[in-house]
Write a structure and sequence with these properties.
single chain, alpha/beta, 4-stranded parallel beta sheet, 10% strand
Length: 112
């Protein structure tokens, strides 16, 4: 019940794998108020990420899914972004990649 009313959930650095994504994907539709979910630095591949993104279709308030630091295959990122968009989500809400790339992007924004 508590998870169902949360607006943000943090499941980072738990070493979760694609098999854990199955259970989480079944839980997501019950998170009626969830806006942001942090799944950073786990062990999700594109398969696990796809399960979670498809489950997001049933989460109307979910705006951000942070998957940074997971071993998602780069050649599957476009497919995942298409699925996210088909769920009616803004592209900027799906975050993937590695921490080093994120830090580099942040530094680039700081340059005047």
């Amino acid at each position: 019940e508590v998870v169902g009313h949360a607006t943000a959930l943090w499941f980072g650095m738990l070493e979760w794998t694609d098999s854990d994504a199955i259970g989480l994907a079944h839980t997501l539709p019950h998170t009626t108020e969830l806006k942001t979910i942090f799944l950073t630095d786990n062990k999700f591949t594109a398969e696990g990420a796809l399960l979670l993104i498809k489950a997001a279709k049933n989460c109307p308030n979910l705006q951000v899914m942070n998957l940074i630091g997971n071993p998602i295959e780069p050649d599957r990122e476009m497919e995942l972004r298409r699925q996210w968009a088909s769920a009616g989500k803004k592209e900027s809400g799906l975050r993937m990649g590695h921490r080093a790339a994120e830090a580099e992007a942040a530094r680039a924004e700081e340059v005047p």
